[in-house]
Design goal:
Distance between the termini: 6 Å
Order of helices and strands: HHHHHHHHHHHHHHHH
Largest sheet: none
Number of domains: 1
Mean pLDDT: 97
Low-confidence stretches: none
CATH topology: ADP-ribosylglycohydrolase fold
CATH architecture: Orthogonal Bundle
Number of strands: 0
Helix content: 55-70%
CATH class: Mainly Alpha
Strand content: under 5%
């Protein structure tokens, strides 16, 4: 299969947004982030977190490296490349274990959800997703949308990494909005389509986020929550998507909002990158950029 240019831009945009945000990932103190002088493209440094609310996990990472969220997206890109764009659960689980399991290519922090999924893959639990409501559940969606898979396939893929009711409720909003914007819809219309696709139990939180467009995302995240769980991370991502005017503005807003900004960056980078490609200077700062681009091309 051959990807549309908007789909390629969305995928590389997701990687770049993730990498750009790595230095302030899980720093929950917006005042500290502001005091650092710049939020984007920082080399991860424990000193930036000293005395502030947050957790520093990216020891030894460079400016331009992707986080574990970017690595999960990469696993899906690699799997889809190997299958000709077809989601195959067994192949995906094999690639997942080859990345995050013992001796895997991923060298960095592995979160609880990923550990739980690995354990379920080993025991052949089906679906293999951990019972976890955090935003890693959505990390692979840009690749699936680029490959043109169905809603049912998206749901199955989410369940392989997150078998939780919150993931099942919020994920349709994310993949519907991404599919719409990657296929040419205007930003606001894509978000509205995503909201309508969400489970009724969580739709109100996304409506509130959309209606908060124009407000400072830092303040909005302070009210809704900056953390990883989807009931916090998805409304914040939708509010930033509804507020920002372009790719750079969205990624800067997301970083300043703090907390699990790398998790939100995958959605936002793909959402804005589809039609407003990341700046070339930013793309040049992405570690392993040529390799990541080659894997996207392999789709």
């Amino acid at each position: 299969m051959t990807l549309k240019s908007t789909h390629q831009n969305a995928l590389i945009g997701a990687y770049i947004a993730d990498a750009a945000t790595l230095g302030v990932h899980w720093l929950y103190d917006p005042v500290r982030i502001e005091a650092l002088g710049k939020a984007l493209w920082r080399t991860p440094d424990a000193a930036d977190f000293a005395g502030a609310k947050g957790v520093f996990v990216h020891h030894g990472k460079r400016s331009g490296d992707i986080s574990q969220y970017g690595a999960q997206l990469r696993v899906m890109v690699q799997s889809l490349g190997a299958t000709g764009g077809r989601f195959d659960v067994t192949d995906y689980q094999t690639h997942f274990a080859a990345a995050f399991g013992p001796g895997g290519w991923w060298h960095g922090y592995i979160d609880k959800a990923t550990k739980g999924t690995l354990a379920n893959i080993v025991t052949e639990t089906s679906p293999s997703g951990a019972y976890d409501d955090h935003i890693p559940a959505l990390s692979a969606l840009p690749a699936l949308i680029a490959a043109g898979v169905s809603d049912e396939t998206c749901a199955a893929a989410v369940a392989t990494v997150s078998n939780h009711e919150a993931s099942a409720a919020y994920a349709p909003a994310a993949w519907t909005a991404l599919r719409a914007v990657m296929d040419g819809a205007a930003k606001a219309d894509a978000l509205q389509q995503g909201i309508r696709a969400a489970d009724t139990a969580v739709r109100g939180s996304l409506v509130a986020a959309f209606e908060a467009a124009g407000r400072d995302p830092v303040a909005f995240a302070g009210e809704v929550g900056r953390a990883c769980p989807l009931p916090q991370s998805m409304p914040v991502a939708f509010q930033i998507a509804a507020t920002a005017g372009n790719y750079v503005e969205a990624i800067e807003m997301n970083a300043r909002a703090g907390g699990d900004n790398c998790g939100r960056a995958i959605f936002l980078g793909a959402f804005f990158g589809a039609h407003d490609p990341a700046p070339a200077l930013w793309a040049a700062r992405l570690c392993e950029g040529p390799e990541l681009a080659a894997e996207i091309t392999a789709l």
